[in-house]
Structures are given as C-alpha cells and as structure tokens.
C-alpha cells in the first residue's frame, strides 16, 4: 500500500556471529521458523525500505558465512537465498571478481584456507582484492606467567563438584568432578576448550562425551582438549572425572575456550588454587 514502515523494533532483535554478521531467529530444523527464513524476510524488508546498506551487507555476509562448507543446507534454502541476495551481489549483471590477498607484496593468494608464519619483528602488510569477504586474523603465541581472567567472546567458570556439591577442599582417594561452564556470546563454530588439571590429580575416567556438539576429547597429562563442531549462543557445561592422589596445595591453571581457526576470539578463567588432604 506504500505506507511508511518502521523496522526499529525488528532490527533490535538481530543477533550477530563472531565475525560481526547479522541474522534473525534461531538456527534449527523447523521448516518455516529458523534463522535462514527469518533473516531472508528481514533482508527483503530492509531492501524494500531503503537506507540499510550497511546492515544489508552484514546480512549478506551472514548467508555467505553459512555456506562455508561449499553449500547451504538444502536446495530449497539455496534457491531462496540466491533469489534474495544475488541481485545485490551482481554488479552490472556480472559476477564479482574472486577475492584474493597479498601478504607483504608477495604472491597473490586465491585458495583458502591459507596460513603463514611471520618472523618476530618482520613487517606485516595485507592487500585485499575483490568484493567478496575474506576473514583474516593475525596473532602471536607466548608464555603468560600471570594470566588474568578474560571475558568477552566466551565467559569461562571452573569449579570442583562431588555428589552435586561444590568443593573447595579435595580429599585424596575420593573421586571428584572438575566442571567448566562455557558461555558463548554468539554462535560459534569449531571451538576448542582447554581444561588444565591440578598436578595432584589423575584421571578417574577418560570418557568421550557426545553432548554439546563434542566430536573428540584428547587427554594429556596436564590438560584436556575438547573439540566442538559448534556452540550456539548460550551456556554449556563440560565435566572431567578426576581422582585426587597427592596431598598438598596446587595451582589450577585457567581453562580457556577459543575458535580453533581464529584464536583471537577467546575467553579465559582466572588462576586458582586447590588443596588436597
């Protein structure tokens, strides 16, 4: 009818991915009520209303991000997504040029994923070509002797529990659970959770767990690494079964959660101490 439409109340309900892309709704397998369907509707509303170019770009990038495996979930959703965003991707009725980057004016990189190691002190310059997005991250690793709690992308909390009661003092020879809660502030994919264990404890059982989209646990002598395909926005609990063996007072190094391929997105618990008697 050509009547004015206010989208403010709907736009305020948007969610974001770790890469800053915008979407609406929840990811699930309901046919007409999921994040793809709701986001398509919002894209059409914003496109028709005009004046939302920045948000439309973030929404297009969300659809492209969901195609990370080379395809969308099914043919029906693929048709709807292409029908909605393709006219805005095509410029002058031609496909956009494929995206590429140059690192330190070296060779042009067109195949991804790609990784390279730069020596300490070496200059780093990045040149990107093409209109489609490329997700780039640069980071360094070093030994941190005094790690502080880090919250933001993930919120991590660790505690001991026995018979559904939290424990601050452990007893040698009595099994205990080391529990870590991970709160993801956005939908995350390919997440690694590292849970150190006190040196006065050994493993009671090296279980593999199917909950929380876990695909594998690797038990090292000093920590457990847990790999998850995805963690939607929300809070998850991970449990390690331990047996306290040696009396004394020990450090509990900080548990940590991070995106495996983009470790700059992470959260960390603080350093703690635990006593065994």
Question: What does this protein look like?
Answer:
This protein is an alpha+beta fold. It has 4 helices and 18 strands. The model has no long low-confidence stretch (mean pLDDT 90).
Helix-strand blueprint:
Elements: H1 8-11, E1 15-16, E2 22-23, H2 35-49, H3 53-65, H4 75-89, E3 100-103, E4 108-109, E5 126-129, E6 154-162, E7 165-167, E8 169-170, E9 176-184, E10 188-196, E11 201-205, E12 214-219, E13 223-231, E14 234-244, E15 248-252, E16 256-259, E17 266-268, E18 272-276
Parallel strand pairs: 8-18
Antiparallel strand pairs: 1-2, 3-4, 3-5, 6-7, 6-9, 9-14, 10-13, 10-16, 11-14, 12-13, 15-18, 16-17
Helix pairs in contact: 2-3, 2-4
Key attributes of the depicted protein:
alpha+beta; five-stranded antiparallel sheet; 4 helices; 17% helix
Question: Sheet bearing the most strands, described?
Answer: 5 strands, antiparallel
SS class: alpha+beta
Number of helices: 4
What sequence of helices (H) and strands (E) makes up the elements?
Answer: HEEHHHEEEEEEEEEEEEEEEE
Rounded to an integer, what's the Rg over CA atoms?
A: 23 Å
Helix content: 10-25%
DSSP, total strands: 18
Strand content: 25-35%
Provide the residue-averaged pLDDT: 90
Distance between the termini: 76 Å
Strand order of the biggest β-sheet: 7-6-9-14-11
Poorly predicted segments: none
Report the principal-axis shape: globular
């Amino acid at each position: 009818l050509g009547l004015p439409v206010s989208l403010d109340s709907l736009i305020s309900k948007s969610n974001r991915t770790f890469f800053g892309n915008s979407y609406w709704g929840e990811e699930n397998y309901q046919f007409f009520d999921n994040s793809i369907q709701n986001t398509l509707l919002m894209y059409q509303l914003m496109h028709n209303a005009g004046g939302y170019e920045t948000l439309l770009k973030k929404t297009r990038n969300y659809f492209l991000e969901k195609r990370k495996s080379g395809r969308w979930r099914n043919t029906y959703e693929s048709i709807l997504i292409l029908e909605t965003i393709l006219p805005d991707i095509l410029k002058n009725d031609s496909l956009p040029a494929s995206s590429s980057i140059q690192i330190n004016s070296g060779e042009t990189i067109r195949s991804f994923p790609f990784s390279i190691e730069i020596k300490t002190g070496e200059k780093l310059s990045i040149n990107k070509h093409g209109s489609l997005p490329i997700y780039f991250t640069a980071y360094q690793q070093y030994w941190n002797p005094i790690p502080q709690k880090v919250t933001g992308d993930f919120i991590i909390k660790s505690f001991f529990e026995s018979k559904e009661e939290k424990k601050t003092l452990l007893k040698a020879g009595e099994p205990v659970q080391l529990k870590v809660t991970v709160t993801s502030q956005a939908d995350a994919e390919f997440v690694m959770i590292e849970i150190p264990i006190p040196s006065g404890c050994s493993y009671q059982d090296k279980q593999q767990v199917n909950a929380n989209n876990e695909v594998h646990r690797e038990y090292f002598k000093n920590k457990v690494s847990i790999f998850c395909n995805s963690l939607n926005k929300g809070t998850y609990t991970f449990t390690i079964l331990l047996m306290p063996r040696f009396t004394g007072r020990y450090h509990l190094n900080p548990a940590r959660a991070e995106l495996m391929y983009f470790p700059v997105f992470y959260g960390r618990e603080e350093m703690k101490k635990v006593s065994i008697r």
